[in-house]
């Protein structure tokens, strides 16, 4: 990863930390109006943890996730991924950071309709340095029996599991999920959460999940609460529940 500036400060040393942000703000300006999407957010996200971001619509969760994933940049403040300062990277550096370190899962699965499950995952394994075999990634999400199916031949939950396989096949350091169950019914949503929990447990991938469903917080190691762009509370769960126990 190349730093744009040579004097980019190191994040205060903390080996177990995946992300650290300091005073992160994002203001969107459209003509005369400006919207503060993130307001002075300082936080840590830890290696291997399953973290849930909770907050009302418009509270800044997606904006934060996009900045952590290198899809967007803050108006002010700083972000570190492990020892590297993301806010010191050029656009090219951010592209490399995303390619090498980040798996994304979105509400709508964004699969290529003309490609099979295996071929959709291969899109990523073809360009990653040390990927899993696509059949292994699809096996991890319980889809070994759907390798040659096309998106239109799969349920919403199965399509989301292909999207998860695609995201994890490059063995990313972080898996960032924006409303991964938002388009699914409760039964299918639980299955997708089970896959995310299992991937987190078996691969140790730091996982961040945005949700509107407050019940999902009970399966997380940590929960971050957002209101009007501000981080207003952080909770650590002493006891986590399984996705199947979630009262949807
Ligand atoms: N590209 C943009 N241009 C202008 N305003 C934006 C843009 N993206 C987000 N916003 C505004 O920033 C605020 C935070 O949006 P964000 O999508 O981060 O919230 P959220 O908590 O993820 O919401 P939701 O749960 O509905 O997805 C909102 O008021 C939103 O309208």
Automatic annotation (TrEMBL):
Secretion signal, residue range per the UniProt entry: none
Any one Pfam family match given in the protein's UniProt record, by short name: ABC_tran
Region listing for Disordered, in residue ranges: 1-20
GO CC terms of this entry: membrane protein complex
Compositional bias per record (Polar residues), positions renumbered to this chain: 1-16
UniProt-listed InterPro entries: AAA+_ATPase (IPR003593), ABC_transporter-like_ATP-bd (IPR003439), ABC_transporter-like_CS (IPR017871), MacB-like_ATP-bd (IPR017911), P-loop_NTPase (IPR027417)
Regions that span the bilayer: none
Tree of life domain: Bacteria
Stretches assigned to the ABC transporter domain: 19-246
GO terms assigned for molecular function: ATP binding; ATP hydrolysis activity; transmembrane transporter activity
Keyword terms, alphabetized: ATP-binding, Cell inner membrane, Cell membrane, Membrane, Nucleotide-binding, Transport
Classification via SMART domains: AAA (SM00382)
Family from the record: Belongs to the ABC transporter superfamily. Macrolide exporter (TC 3.A.1.122) family.
Name listed for the protein in its UniProt record: Putative ABC transport system ATP-binding protein
């Amino acid at each position: 990863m190349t730093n744009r500036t040579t004097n980019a400060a190191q994040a205060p040393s903390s080996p177990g930390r995946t992300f650290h942000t300091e005073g992160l703000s994002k203001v969107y300006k459209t003509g005369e109006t400006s919207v503060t999407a993130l307001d002075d957010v300082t936080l840590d996200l830890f290696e291997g943890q399953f973290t849930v971001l909770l907050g009302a619509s418009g509270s800044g969760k997606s904006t934060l996730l996009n900045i952590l994933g290198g899809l967007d940049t803050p108006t002010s403040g700083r972000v570190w991924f492990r020892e590297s300062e993301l806010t010191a990277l050029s656009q090219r550096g951010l592209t490399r950071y995303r390619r090498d370190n980040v798996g994304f899962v979105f509400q709508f699965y964004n699969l290529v309709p003309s490609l099979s499950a295996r071929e959709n995952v291969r899109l990523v394994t073809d360009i990653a340095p040390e990927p899993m075999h696509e059949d292994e990634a699809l096996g991890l999400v319980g889809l070994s029996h759907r390798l040659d199916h096309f998106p239109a031949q799969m349920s919403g939950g199965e399509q989301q599991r292909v999207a998860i396989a695609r995201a994890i096949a490059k063995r990313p350091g972080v898996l960032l999920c924006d409303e991964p169950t938002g388009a699914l019914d409760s039964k299918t949503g639980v299955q997708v959460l089970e896959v995310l929990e299992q991937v987190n447990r078996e691969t140790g991938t730091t996982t961040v999940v945005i949700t509107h469903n407050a019940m999902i917080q009970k399966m997380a190691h940590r929960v971050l609460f957002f209101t009007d762009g501000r981080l207003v509370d952080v909770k650590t769960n002493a006891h986590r529940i399984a996705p199947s126990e979630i009262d949807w």
